[in-house]
Amino acid sequence: VPLMIMVIALGGLAMTHLYNMVVSYGRYNTDFTVPLMIMVMKITGLAFALRDGRLLNRMETNPEKFKDTKLSAEQRQQCVRNLPSLLEYSSFLLSFVALFSGPLSSFTDYNDFITGNNLPEKVRKGLEAAPSPTIPALKKFTCSLFPLALNIYFLPSFPIQNLVEKDLLNQLPLHSHFLYAWCSGFFSRCRYYFAFVLADATCNAAGFGFNGYDQQGKAMWNLVTHIYPFSIEFATSPRTCIENWNIQTGIWLRRVCYERFPFYPRVATFLLSGIWHGFYGGYTLAFFSMALMTDAARKARHAFRGHFQSSKGLSVFYDVLTFFCTTVMMAYFMTPFLALRTDYSLSIWTSWYFSGHIIVVIALLVLPGKSGKRRLQKESGNGEKSDGELHPHSN
Fold first, then answer.
1. How many CB atoms lie within 10 A of CB 366?
2. What is the pTM of this model?
3. Which residue, among 146, 132, 233, 251, has the nearest Cα to 197 in the 3D structure?
4. Residue partners of 88: CB distance under 8 A and separation at least 6
5. Which of 237, 253, 262, 392 is geometrically suited to a Cys-Cys bond with 287, CB 3.0 to 4.6 A?
């Protein structure tokens, strides 16, 4: 049943993506497609949570029959044992605080928020005051305004199409191309920083997002946090960028696909992410290239990092060097994600002589790395899957 729901939900979403490609090819549209993408994640996530809940009920009723069946700790915690009522389902699906741009939440987390089960026992009994979301919500709201201003005032000066259509840029040196691509990418990302941080603030303002207390006893409001802009912009590895971008979508991909698909889960997760995002060739080029770049970066880290840990100065130099390399390579490989069109993407990469791909291929072929046996087992479904693997979940 969950797979059937997945096919139907993705089928409907795919038709909207194709419709947008027909009526406005090569342009971003802010329309009903984004709320529909959120709903697809909610519906499919709930379907698999119900499957886990029913399986857990059977395991407890007849443990001998299901002794070889395993559920992870997270699957047990997130499972839904009883079919939600129509009101509960509608509230989860159409919650106004996360309807238009997310962030995504699981049904279990949302229901705990509605019922108050996400709060400490002393708070529920009235012995302590509930943690206040006012300060965290105001901080996030204020922080969201800065990237909004950057996007509004500077992005019109750096349209990615200029890398293809403007003869002036074709006369500029290669490093100027990269600088322009970075500016275009950064100011484009700012609109996502604004939308995702503001959505997180909206949830917090409604009281949703409390995630317990840290070691200092301070309330944490990061349960549905979708993005960490500073961690992305100052990342020293591609993996850091990926782990801090579109976080809830990455969790969804892991829960419904990566941890469940029996064969080559990374490939299956990539395909699911591609269908969910849309069918522009730029997405496919960016995702496949990012997967290669992440593998190359992992090998480079394994080969070189140990040589820079003998002193603090060398360690700082290594961090600065990897930050610079990550920034340049992310600007290179994520350009198709902005260009959308396949012809634009290939034209831009051609003007750069496919230099990023050449560097990545050389690194993959030349640099030594850890044994691939364990990863091969993970990819073929014969070993345990770790959360550290790459999940393609840009947005």
1. 9
2. 0.89
3. 146
4. 111, 114
5. 392
User: Which residue is catalytic, options 246, 391, 393, 395?
Assistant: 246
Q: Kindly state the tokens that stand for 320.
A: 């600065």
Neighbouring CB atoms inside 10 A of 137's CB total: 20
**Contact, 242 vs 232, CB < 8 A?**
no
**Tokens 């989860």 appear where?**
92
Q: Which residues, listed in sequence order, are joined to residue 213 by a DSSP beta bridge?
A: 219
Phi first, then psi, for residue 134 (nearest 5°) are -60, -55
- State whether residue 213 is helix, strand or coil: strand
**DSSP-assigned letter for residue 219:** B
CA distance 322 to 305: 10
The model's confidence at residue 167, banded by pLDDT at 50, 70 and 90, is low
Residue with tokens 């003007």: 351
List Cβ neighbours of 10 (8 Å cut-off, separation of 6 or more). 40, 44, 272, 275, 276
246 is a catalytic site residue? yes
CA–CA gap between residue 336 and residue 341 (Å, rounded): 7
- % of the chain surpassing 70 pLDDT: 92
pLDDT at 388 exceeding the cut of 60: no
Which residue, chain included where needed, has tokens 């349209």?
A: 159
218 phi and psi angles, rounded to 5 deg: -90, 135
Question: What tokens appear for 243 in the block?
Answer: 């782990």
Q: How confident is the model at residue 170 (pLDDT cuts 50, 70, 90)?
A: low
DSSP 8-class letter at 32:
T
| pLDDT at residue number 169 | 64
Please identify which of the residues 17, 177, 226, 277 carries the catalytic annotation: 277
pLDDT at 233: 96
Q: Is 391 a catalytic residue?
A: no
CB-based burial label for 91 (10 Å; 0-12, 13-18, 19+): middle
Going along 44-169, which residue ranges are E strands?
Answer: none
- C-beta separation of 356 from 329 below 8 A: yes
Going by C-alpha positions, the residue among 196, 189, 195, 199 that lies closest to residue 154 is 189
The amino acid at 170: N
| Residue 113: Cβ-neighbour burial (10 angstroms; 0-12, 13-18, 19+) | buried
pLDDT score for 342: 93
